Give the backbone structure.
Amino acid sequence: MDQILEETIAAIATPVGEGGIAVIRVSGSAAFEITGKVFESAKGASLAAAASHTIHFGKMIDFKGKPIDQVLASIFKNPHSYTGEDTVEISCHGGLVVSRKILDLLYQAGARPAQPGEFTKRAFLNGKIDLTQAEAVLDLIRAKSDRASEIAIRQLSGALSLRFKNLRDQLMSVYANMEAYLDFPDEDLEIDIREGMQNQLVEAEKTIRSLLAGFSKNSLLREGAFVVLAGKPNAGKSSLFNALLERDRAIVSDIPNTTRDVIEEPLEIGGFWLRLADTAGIVSTPEHPLDEMSMQRSRDAIEKCHLVLFVVDGSRPLDEADRNILQQIPKDKARMILINKSDLSQKLSKENLAELNAAIQISTKTGKGLDALEKELALYLEKQTSDNGEQITKQRHQHALTQALEALARARSTYEQKLSFEFVTIDLKAAIDCLEELIGSVYSEDLLDVVFKQFCIGK
C-alpha cells in the first residue's frame, strides 16, 4: 500500500469527448517535478516553489520543445488537496487529441496511469474522507435527480458517517465497561455494568433497524421509482407516455395493439427520478399469439413496478375489460387511476366514477390535468422517500448493518440468559467490527477494490 501511495498518478478528470476544456489531474509526491518537465510557465515560475492554491498560465511542451497547448496549471500542496498529496490540475482545451497528448507527456515524464477511483482512494487512505464519504462521491456523480443529489451531498459532508460513529462509540462504551469488569472483578468500579445495559443494546438495535428501513427508500431515489402505464388498448397509454416525456417516444395509432413491448424511459418530476414504462394493452381474449406474449410482459412489468398508472378511456363506459385489468394489479401495489380523453364527451356513469374512486381527469390531447398528475406523482414519491435523518444508500451498508444487528441480538440474548460477560463481549465486538468496516476504520484490499472499481478513472 505504501509503495502505491509513493507513485505519482495522472488521468483525465473530465468526460471523454469534445468540450470547452479538459482537466488532467496529477497527484503524488513527484507531481510538481513531473509536471514541471512538460510545463513552461509564462512568467518562468517553478511549480514546486509556487504557493498552494495558485493558478499559473503557461504552455505544455513536448521533450523537443514543441508547444502542445496553452494551459492553466492549478497548484495544491499537501495536505490541502483532494487526495491529501501534492496535486496539479491542468486545464487545457477540450478534445481527445490535445488532452491525450498532454497525458502521454506526463506518462513519459514519470507519472503512471491512475486506476479507476484511485484519486478518491488516496483521499481515503490519506485520511481526507472516510469510506462512507468516498461512496458519496460516486453517488453525487451518478445522481439523476435533485433529491438524489441532496442525499449524496449530505453524506459527503459526513452526516451519515457521524451516525455510524455515534453508534459505534455507544457500543464501544458498553464494551469497554464490560471488559473492565471482566479484567478487574474485585475492583470497586464507579459504573454498575448491569445498569442500563439491556436498554443500550435495545436502543442500538432500534437505530440499526431504522437505518435498514431507509434502504429501500433511498434505492428509489438513487435508482428511480419504476412507474408503469397499464390499461386496455387505445386507452391513451402511449399518448400519455409521450406527453410526460414531452417528445414522441412511443408510436401512437388508432389501430389496437400498436404497442407490443414494454418501452422504458427516464423522467424527472418534482426533483425525483423515475423510470416510466409504456406497456401493451391487456385484453380478456388475445387474438394473436403475439398479443399474449405482449400482455405477459405487461403483467411482468406491473408485478415489478413501484406504482401503476391505470389509464381508462373516459369517452367509453367502464366495462369488464377495464375491471379485469384492475383485478390483475396486486392489491398491495400502489396505483393511480387516470381518466383520459376528458376533451371528448364523457360516457362514464356516476357509478363508474365511484367505482374508480378519486381518479384524475386528464387529456393527453389538450394537456389538461397533466400538471395535476405530475404533482400527485411528486407527492407519492415524497411520501415514499421521506426519512427522519440520514439513511443508507449502498448494499454494502445494508449487509454490514444486518450483520451488526444479528450480532447485537445474540449479545442481548446472551445477556438476558445471565451467561458470562465473556460470551456477551464476543458478539458485541463483532457488531462493533461491522461498524468499523462501514466507516473504513478497518478495511481489506478486497473491500477497497469493490468500492473503488465502480469509479471512473479520473475520479
Notes: The mean pLDDT is 84. The first helix runs from residue 2 to 6.
